[in-house]
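New to this. Explain the following:
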Amino acid sequence: MTIDWTRLIRVRERHKLGALEAVALERETAALRDSEARRAREAFEHQAAAQAELWRSTTSQPDGLSVDSLRRTSRWSRALDTQIAQAGQAARQAQERAEQQLLRLEESRRHLRAAVGDLDKAERLQREMRAAQRRDAEERLQDAAEEIGVQAWSARKV
């Protein structure tokens, strides 16, 4: 069985290009997921800061604290607690998606490394096979030259 090295190398190059495209796509998606996670964290932090500011503004009123202002602040704070919880959940989910995407990116990179290794191996084996063919051809030429030399010598001797 003979191996069509040129065809094998073309197939390996296509695998490598496909893996390169997959890595580029996964990298782009990872950047998007990271951006989403960052925005979700910022939204969570903004909600928490809003709640802290609500209480700060309530406690720093020039006319002092009143039961009515504490009730209003408490109602708003409970509403903000719900928003903070939702923002925190959204931030955790976005972070999980970003981490999962990084795992997919790393898997794509492993496939790319394997494809590059397969291509390199095919190219190396092709070079080795061609070198062996050249050595065999040179040996055949040398054997033929020796045979011709022997026949010429024999013919002169007779």
